[in-house]
Amino acid sequence: MTAATSRLDLAGRTALVCGSSKGIGRATAILMARRGAKVIMLARSEAALTETAEMLRGEGCDVSILVADLDDRDDLLAKLDGLLEQGPIHIVVHNTGGPKGGPLHKAALSELEGALGRHVFSAHVMMQKVLPGMTEAGYGRWINVLSTSVREPIPNLGVSNLTRAAMASWAKTLSREFPQGVTINNVLPGFTDTDRMVGLASATADRTGASYDDVRAGWIAQVPEGRLADPAETAEAICFLASEAGAYVRGHSLPVDGGRLRSIS
After folding, report:
1. pLDDT at 98
2. Is the model's pTM score more than 0.90?
């Protein structure tokens, strides 16, 4: 193993990956496990978690599952207490499904409350639980999986735009407060080949009358790389930020978007 490779290794670290039953979360849990981390896969679907965990255990990886819902924060915190009794969690990947589409001015207050609860509130209470252990260990990595809407709001995703921006501001504030050795960053996926994008494409097709294939082709036309991202590509960026190699990156929002964003910063 070269020196450069060893700084990307996650051996000796415990990682909690939210939303790891599918998509970017699943790809991240797999990559972290294969790079040596002890991975706790969190999601609502026990069957999907178990299938992936068994595959990784067959490769010799140290993986466990945690069936929990970020909307049920009392249950989540109780289960998190149980995990922390076994030792500190060094890495948290906060990743959860986005709100349904639609213009912001038509969104009910309950939609805003639900989205902010699932994202900002769950992240905040989890952070307060894991931060002491990260601080004592002298090593902590918190990575939010957000959206390019942090930089450029996406039409007809009003509640999602609001929520992702709130998460980015929360993270930037904490980046100035966390102690040395504990970092927080955001990854901003662009158009990625996940179930979420399938749902959005179908909803857009229904709303506009365009075909599903035309909707996807329209997205791809906006991306200089000329394709949707593979979730594993976003996982690579997340794992870099979680590693020793990413130690000096702090308070950053990193797009993984194939060059689609037009803004410089």
Report:
1. 87
2. yes
